[in-house]
Amino acid sequence: MPLADKVRPNSFDEVAGQKHLLSRNAPFRRIIESGHLPSLVFHGPPGTGKTTVAEIVARSACKEFYRINATVASLSDIKDILSFSHSITATDGIILYIDEIQYFNKKQQQSLLEYVEDGRVTLISSTTENPFFSLYPALLSRSSVFEFKPVDAEDMLPALRRAFDICNKEEGMNKECSDEALLTVANGCGGDVRKAIGALENLYFASETVLEPELAKQLAQRSGIRFDRDGNEHYDLLSAFQKSIRGSDPDAAVFYLARILEGGDLISACRRLMIIACEDIGLAYPSCIPIVKACVDIANSVGLPEASLPLADAVVLLATAPKSNSAHDAYFAAVEAINSGRGRDIPSYLRDTHRPDADNGYKYPHIYKNHYVEQRYLPPDIKEGEFYKFGDNKLERAALEYYKLIRGISEKDKK
Question: Which one, 31, 104, 334, 346, has least CB within 10 Å?
Fold first, then answer.
């Protein structure tokens, strides 16, 4: 049996972390201890206690318990288990625990609906992905969702101490391990208790009589980096990355860049930086766009790990630059007008002059003073100035003054 299973808690009080769910007065714990057991969805990172809590919940209920893993189970496996819900021993229904339910397709998830709805099956499922994206909506609506969070290093200490004592007992040894060494292991495992127990086991067998913090640090190196290119962690990091730059925080922006690059995802970092340059800095500092593009080109040319240097330059530049999203807002305001059915009729004098019905009323701005002449360009059902609003940064303020100047001169010429 793996060491993590030997250490697995038997009660809520022994579970590492998740105090928001498992403390004495937490709503989740009060629901379970009341004897009322709804269908449940647990979501959160690996090694945070989802399976452990599911097993404790199942033991507290007077129902038959079945467990499957969605990574290997088939539709026939589900049907075999559901058939037991008709048996004489399951008059109160059964509990079905599905681990990694995000790997079930729509048809597999739909097969559970009837049984969950009429109470023959109480479903407990766990997933490392956002259930609001990965679970079939009808199944999700019949379940209560609870989030599991990464476990703090201090909260892992009791579990790691139990694991250490088990190793000593099974090996007939009397090795020593300080809390400092255990904390070093815990801090290097990114809130994943299972991973921390595995790292501690490696440390135990790599040590002679004392488990030293320095050796723990070497064995736990990089194990705390969690980055799933196809999962929530990927999108959460990219979101935090862009929002930190938008919020003009270079420290946070560089930190999230490091998280992304240490996870090996150069492509996403480069793509997001170019978007940020256009969306969040935009017309406040338009020359940053080619600068960022040059940094991205260098990064892609040299590859990781050296790519971190030009990208760090780009990140600090963008985070400390003035910000404007005026062009972004103008575009999507125009899209909204189009989607509402406005702006269908282009003014006749703006149409292609090769058309037989072309209007020759177009005024060529370059032959007028200041290369400007007043004429309407928007369709008749869209008002002037509806989309673009000049930003409050230096460059756009200067552009606004020029905008007012040429229109003011034009008004004087008309008089």
Answer: 346
Nearest to 317 by CA among 272, 269, 281, 278: 281
pLDDT at 88: 47
pLDDT of 314 reads: 96
Distance CA 226, CA 196 (A): 13
Q: Which residues contact 362 (CB under 8 A, 6 or more apart)?
A: 349, 350, 353, 375
Nearest to 273 by CA among 265, 284, 189: 265
pLDDT of residue 223: 58
Four-CA torsion 17, 21, 26, 29, nearest 10 degrees: -110
Tell whether the torsion through CA atoms of 242, 247, 248 and 252 is positive or negative.
Answer: negative
Distances (CA, A) of 51 to 219, 332, 400: 26, 44, 60
* For range 377-384, the mean pLDDT: 90
**Angle (deg, nearest 10), helices 213-220 and 179-187:** 10
Which two three-digit tokens encode residue 158?
């009791």
CA distances 371 to 130, 325, 361, Å, are: 55, 28, 17
